[in-house]
Protein 1
Amino acid sequence: MKIAVLSGKGGTGKTAVSVSLAALIPGSQYVDCDVEEPNGYIFLRPRIGKSISVELLVPTVDVQKCTGCGLCARVCQFNAIAVVRGKVLVFPEICHYCGACTIACPEGAIKEVPRQIGVVEISQDGAFIHGRLNTGESTGVPIVDELKRNLKEDAHPILDCPPGVSCSVVHAIEGCDYCILVTEPTPFGLYDLEIAVKLMERMGIPFGVVTNKASEGVDLIDEFCEKRGIDVLVKLPFSVEVAKAYSQGILPIDVDDEWRARLALLYEKVKRGSNK
Amino acid sequence: MKQVVFISGKGGTGKSTVVSSLSLIVHNKMMADCDVETPNLHILIKGESIERRDYFGGKKAVIDYSVCMQCGRCWQVCRFGAISKKLEVLPMKCEGCGVCALVCPCNAIRLDDEKTGEVYVSSTDRGTFSYALLDIGGEGSGKLVTEVRKSAEGQCKGEEWLLIDGSPGIGCPVIASITGADAVVAVTEPTMSGLSDLERVLDVARHFGIPAFVCINKYDLNPEITEQIERFCQQNGFPVIGKIPFDPAIVEALKNFKTPVEAGNVEFTDEVVKLWHRLVDELKKLTV
């Protein structure tokens, strides 16, 4: 069973929930798909055993063969190639590595060479895996794809997703059996949850909501979920102990028994609600 | 018009809270929300809509099956897995690169413009405000961010400042938010995650040569890590221009759709006013 944890809004507690679940579920695999800002390693402190370089193919031009015709620049939909006074300029950071220029070049003057955009690191025991985008690079999607090629299907992968609803999130949750949407009871949390719910409906993945930093009683997240027929799986109370532990990179379930109990309950509910 | 972008690396550190508060403090300015996936600033900054338009920021392949002879070349060459074995275009995966159209021997594939989001401009009692909403799973968030900034610039009537609320992360929307800006303010929090993400986002600002400053929100929650952040900033030449104390009343104000400034949170307001003055001073130093 593959479980994804996402949120729409940043800072709601995706990582706190993901690393806690990973620590609770025996034989699980934690997968940090937030390759722009990975944080799971801070809590799980893995010993990295293997590192995979993630590379994309970007065009280089053989100036001997190039006639400066400009066809490559015309077919590039991303303005990653410009031809100025017969000279081809490539902007690798915005290249989408689609290969259009190489196919279009009538002289066979373009060759694609690998260029590193980040890495995937796997712990010695295989229970931890994360990706890291190099700073200055624009897309982490290929790193997310590489992470997904390294999932241990038999080990209950838990995918900690980036905030938002971008292509990285779509790639991360694709093929998952259940999504946990972590939110908080504020107007920001609700607005972003509604956006994340739309993504769920579009992708057709079973999902439920976890309200973090919840106070007693019915809140605006409960009201929304009730109206829409969405399960609020568990509510995690705001706790200074948890906030402190989190700030120091300590697992919330190690300092708060209530968190531990509710996360165990969360896992039971997810098992019942998932595709598998 | 000088453009100041508030980013953070890590989400939920308080960017929108700070920017919405500054919208009540800074005079002669415009505002833009460049978090186009999950914009939040318009929840706190209400106004009258003066512009709303669809944005066509992407392209999608469309196959004309009356011409297609099912050769499968498109499926072979697509590097994004956006064409299924049955030769259907999978819209969530198509990047609109056009390689399929390029190789199709019977010209059965064309690229159609695709709506990727909506851009809004509203007039508020605090100045003109632009923002956008990216369609779910939409391509090209960076392009939409650029469009939001252009929409604000297009409405400029001599305002001195453009305050930009950025998005979490370090990828294309963040790069599009800070490119060509005059300053970046990274809002962080004293957690190991906050520090780790701050280091990466400041690295991006440096990569693109934008002067960067730091604001530590909820600084008193973990004094040791706050010290660690200050040490890091000092060693790397990023001035810390604001330290905002934690106060549960701030969250309560937000729950009532109010900025802490409107809710009368004096300590918070003072600190944000100071932050702004320090930023203005630092920017003056840079131009001398």
Protein 2
Amino acid sequence: MGPYRLQRFPSAAPGIALLARLGAIVLALLISALVLALTGAKPGALALQVVTASFGSQFGLEDLGLLVTPLIFTGLSVALALKIGAWNIGAEGQFYAGAFAASAVGLFLPVAEPLSLFLMLLAGLVGGALWILIPTLARAYAEVNELITTLLMNFVAVLGVYYVSTGPWRAKGANSTTARIPAEIPEFFGSLHWGLPAAVLLALLLALALARSRFGYEVRLAGSNPQAALYAGLPARRRLIAVMLAAGALAGLGGMVEVAGTVHRLQGGLSNSYGYLGIMVAVLARGSLVGVVFSAALMAFILNAGIILQTQGLTTSTVLAVTGLILFLTAIGDELAHYRLVRDARA
Amino acid sequence: MIDLRTLSRRGFLNMGALGAASMMLPAGVTRPALAAAPLAPVKEEEAVVAFSHVGPISDEGWTWAHHQGVLAVQEAYPKLKKVLEVENVPYSADATRTFRQFVSEGASVVFDTSSKGDFLYEVVKRSPEVAFLECDGHTVEGNLGWYYIAHWYPTYVLGVAAGHLSKSGRLGYVASFPVPSVFCSTNAFLMGARSVNPKATLQTIVINSWFDPQAAAQAGTALIDNGCDFLFGIMDEAAYLQVAEKRGVWAAMWNTDIRRYGPSAYVSSIIIDFRKFYVDQVGKRLAGTWAPGEFILPLGGGVDRDAWGEKVPKEVAAAADAVRDKILGGWSPFAGEIKDASGAVRLAAGQTMSEKDLYDWDWSIEGISGLNA
Amino acid sequence: MPESPDAMMSPIPRFMPLPGTPPLVEMKGIAKYFPGVVANEDVDLTVMPGEIHALLGENGAGKSTLMNILTGIYQPDKGEMLIDGYAKSLASPLQAIAAGIGMVHQHFKLVQAFTVAENIHLGWAETPIGASAPVLEARTEVLARRFNLETRPSARVSELSTGEQQRVEILKVLARKARILILDEPTAVLTPAEARALFAALRAFVAEGHAVIFISHKLEEVLEISDRITVLRGGRKVATQDAADCTVKGLARMMVGRDIVLADMRARPQGAGPLAAMPVLALDKASTDGSGGAVALKDVTLAVRPGEILGIAGVAGNGQRELSQVLTGMRPLSGGQLLIDGQAVAKADARAFAKAGIGHIPEDRLKSGLAPALSVAANAVLREYDKPPVSARGMFSPRAALALARSIAEAAAVAIPDFAMPVRNLSGGNQQRLVARREMRIASRLLVAAYPSRGLDVGAINTMLRYIVELRDAGAAIILISEELEELLNLSDRIAVLHEGEVMGVLDNDHIDIERIGLMMGGQRQADIKAAV
């Protein structure tokens, strides 16, 4: 046996965790490159294409920013609920509910633009919170698993938005959208709007609030071990309700920002599965609210790369396979980060 | 069977006659080109042409038909620097990303083969050097035009056949969305049928999708259960044809020749063909003569009926084809008096709908149920 | 212990290996290093067929590491292993099981929602494919009879007592044809009666030529059950001796390297005032509903005064959990009254109780006293997070929390390298010390200590008990719930005996009769015993 061994440590050093992540991404890209090369594509040129198209042009940066924004909101929604031990699988539905409520205000409440935007924001928050209300109460008072209830609420919201945008609210002549909502979130970089800085700021503020408030401590304790919360006598149920509603409101706000900043109309395909991707974002962030910003950025880059690769003639399935590989290896990398090479302590 | 290629060529030969009858020309028909400065010519070797599709090119329907156009462009201009083609572009902000990507790649002309509306205009506004063409669009800008097919004529012809073939006089329609192309399609179809059987009615089921075999099959079954013995629709797949084949009723389809899914039930299809149009537009863009406009490809010049199904009686086919010839000769079936579903007269006797009216048709005529604006 | 081991054991003939029979297990010169830690070095262990071999040592003495090596979880850095006389390297737990080595861990690894029969058959190559529940249950019944381990095959594990769960774990290992059974602290969770039943089953098992390795801190019990004893200290072997040649004192000295006195701690410091008359806390005919089939409390009447230690004796699972929850405001009463300083308390509110100066060392520290995944600092401030300096006006100060955590760790004499690491990374003993110190800080009126020495080694137990005495001397009342009679006798002023949720009687510790406590633990009332005597 050599003088060095691999040993698992209960917690990963942040530097190593970061390295493992980068390693995982590089490895995934190398494997993908190998497979692409075998099928006759030119991986080097494709990679260059992806990088230059993502970061080398204003259009690319705008696209990244527009993709990151909703992912931060839904990622925060899922990560926040996880803080109190709840799995919010329903960020998709709350996103739609928020977008729906905001659109209702934006379309049918004839007020001046700044006021309209503000009311849309409130409507988005309330819409998202309302959409998680039933799962929240069911979990808090009847111990009904929120995993299933929040998921089921998604279908109701998605189909509901689909219905109004193809039915009663459909703009004349349009396939499946409402009319354009007059109030718009101002843009500051091409079509990139203030929703992105707001999302990043929100992540920082939420992280700070959780770390630096009594409420936050109680949430962490109750989320980490409900038994200990009972033991400490803290109002765990009230905290659960507050946090889950806030999680719903965050996703709803994401829907409002998407509709008022990016899409400008309520329609069926409004969310590109941002709610479900938010689960992945939150898991990749490993419970860190600030980490959500970075994992959302990674996810946005992957999604954007997918679109770029499609214009290069790669099929959707190839792109999905590469995406899956990156996430899969990232998960393995996260686990491997717990291992360190140690020297035997032999005297 | 009629060879599609011959058919389109014949269609184009007829164009002069159509023009004389104030019908559509494939160049800026209802509105003259805007007086913007034309885009500078591009060398073929340096030109990038891009297409965004709604479905997979293997769908045997709408997207497949557009893909034939892409192939034709590649054949006509083999030296093009790049031809970009993206499938399955959703109607969402992802569409904007795809168009932006086309522009980043240096596209000279971008075809959106299924209207993406705002998601396209966003990019159009910021890319004045790129020519955009939106299929089924509504907006013309300095660098944006739209195009579509005059599907209402062959649809009327199929309606005539349906009027002969349907014993019950109850026709069924599997609709995607309550949008103008569907209103126009249902109306033209029923008008054709009523020209033979004035008591004919059309029941519509909206399934909110262009491609959902399961929903289309369910809708087809429900329509037949309601007594319909002729199914028509506007789907990018063959599900209700298979239902019709199984239940022993007639069916007419859209996009391409898919008779093998129901050879006995198959009556005909609305066949679409964008090859000539795409080659033309790319050619003009390269030459620096491209101008935005509204292009509605005429009967025989991008849209037509398919060869009749094997079980369709010769005399029915002949009767319908006689109407087709009449239309090719300049006659329009869409003349007053036309009443809407509530019985109110919407087009007075003696008036004729323009191509633009037909394209924007958004109300149902008397006799149609299940479709509300 | 009142009875000698031989008197208790059923007359099962000892298995005598033939001369020249190789040991079942022979570990030679085993070493295992972790960064900065010598977990094992130069350890020899020989286990003969037919023997129960005790492995004794303080927390961190290297017992678990050695057993993890024997069960294939760790690879030794040095040394060799012989099974049945043949050198063998066990690269994985599966290989260890194949070699006939099975281990029952302190924390059970059963699927709570499955039945006993399903757990027994889970992941077992011999499970018949597609067998119905009755078939699995019948097979389990046969196994249970063969190994003399009574179970209820159709019951769900979540409905079982800890003792029953342990039997299922053992049965699971034995069913897989283990010849060497390793038990880690098996009696920590058992009532005395259950422990006796376990010992009988172990005797029967080794009588067939198998062997048991028995890990424990409890010296009496080790003397009672084992044939030979190996003592580890600081990762090294101190000695292996025949149990017959050992004494409690001698073993304790070998374990800790110094003399340990378990003695009467009831003496109050000089000048301590007389006990106040007014109880800090009293229960008056208190009843409560049980949860999950557990025994509820029925008409419990108790009182504890400042400066007094009230011991609660009884076989585990007779309402101790509910009692400690009632006493700390975690569980509402369904009848009767709870009085603090003579005032009836209407509402069970754990936070209000803590604020009133009632501390609680819970029965299961990891499950309810701590949030295992949160940092040491976050756990240390659990009782004081909501008041200055940790919190002020809704704001939480991580710096103040860290300072408080440091002072608690210091008082507990626990060295913590990193207060941000999850508390589950601490050893069980250190967790227990932290919880105890945290609770003592707030327990100005009353400390409810449930099994405070469970899972601790001799040295740590002594420290823990000293803490409790300190607190008593400072004038707080103590309610000490324990299954260790000695501990109760050493500390308590009075002892109440709990049986099926009822108090059988409260005895003054001055002239106590162990026999009588035993009878009360078995369900006889104090009054009835008096009448009978």
